[in-house]
Amino acid sequence: MAPPRAVALAPGVFRIPTIGSWGTNSFAFVDDDGSVTLVDTGLKSAPPRIVAGLKAIGKHPSDVQRIVLTHAHPDHAGGAADMAGKTGAPVAVHEDDAGFVETGTAPPTDTSSLAGKFFARLPSGGFPAVAVAERLTDGQMLDVAGGLRVVATPGHSPGHISLLHERTATLITGDAIFNVLGVRYSPRPLCTDFRLTRRTAHVLGDLEYEGVGFTHGPEILDGGRTAVRRFLAKAVDRKTPE
Questions:
Q1: What pLDDT does 3 receive?
Q2: pLDDT at 237
Q3: Cα 148 to Cα 4: distance, rounded to the nearest angstrom
Q4: What are the DSSP calls for 130-198, one per residue?
Q5: Does residue 152 belong to any structural domain of this protein?
Q6: How many structural domains compose the chain?
Q7: Distance CA 137, CA 17 (A)
C-alpha cells in the first residue's frame, strides 16, 4: 500500500511523510489566510513528496511562505535548498544550527561511545547549502497559524528545536524524541551530545499539549503528552548509563 501523501494531525496541521508511511516526516501548518509554513524538508530527494503532500491538502509550493528547520541534519534540511527555490520562502533555523545550514554540513556527532567514534569516521555527505533568513531563539513565538512557539531542545544538534502549536495543542518533537518501536531518545551516535539530548528532552514533559507529531515515527494524537511523560519518567528510572 502506498504511504499517505498527508495526514491531518489537527485543524490546519498536517504530517507529510517523506520516507515510507512515517519513517521521516515533514509538517505543514496552514494559516487562516491559506498560507503555509513548512517544517523540515527531508532528504535532498524529498521535495517531490513534499509537493505531493501539499497538493493533497489543496496547496501549492507558491503557498509556502516560510520554511522552518528543526535542525541541520541531511534528513531534515537536505531538501531545504530545493524547496526554498520552488517556493521563494525564507528559511528559519535556530541560531546555533544556522552556520551548518548555510554551509551544508552536519554538526559533529557524539564520540563518547564506540559506535559514536565509528559513525564520526564515516563521510557525512552533507546536504545542499541554503541561506538562512531568520535565526531562531528559545521561546520565540512565530506568527504561524495562531502562534508557533520555538522550544530549544539542544543535544541532537547544537541548535535543535521542537515546536509547540498552542492553538491546537500540538507538539512537534523534532528528533528530541523518536516514536520508532515505541517512544525513545534518538540513538546516541546520531546526536552531537547525547547527555544534553536526554536533559533537554525533559522540557517537553513540562509543556501543555495533547497531540504529538514526531519527525521519525507516527503521531500520537490522543494522550500524546501522557505518552511522552511516561517515557521520560521511565528513562529516568532506568538510569541509562551516560
A1: 84
A2: 58
A3: 25
A4: ---SEEE-TT-EE-STT-EEEEE-TTSSTT-EEEEETTTTEEE-TTSEEESSSEEEPPGGG-S-HHHHH
A5: yes
A6: 1
A7: 27
- Give the burial class of 111: count Cβ atoms within 10 A of its Cβ; 0-12 exposed, 13-18 middle, 19 or more buried: middle
pLDDT in the model for residue 238? 57
Contact 25, 212 (CB under 8 A): no
C-alpha cell at 116: 559514536
Residue 126: domain span: 7-238
**Structural domain contains residue 1:** no
Q: Is 2 within a domain?
A: no
Dmax over CA atoms of the chain, in Å, equals 51
Residue in the structure block whose three cell numbers are 505518552: 227
Question: Does the structure show a pLDDT above 70 at 32?
Answer: yes
pTM: 0.93
| Residues 89-127 pLDDT 10s | 999 999 999 999 999 999 998 767 655 554 555 456 699
**Is residue 130 assigned to a domain?**
yes
CATH number of the domain at 22, please: 3.60.15.10
Mean pLDDT of the chain: 93
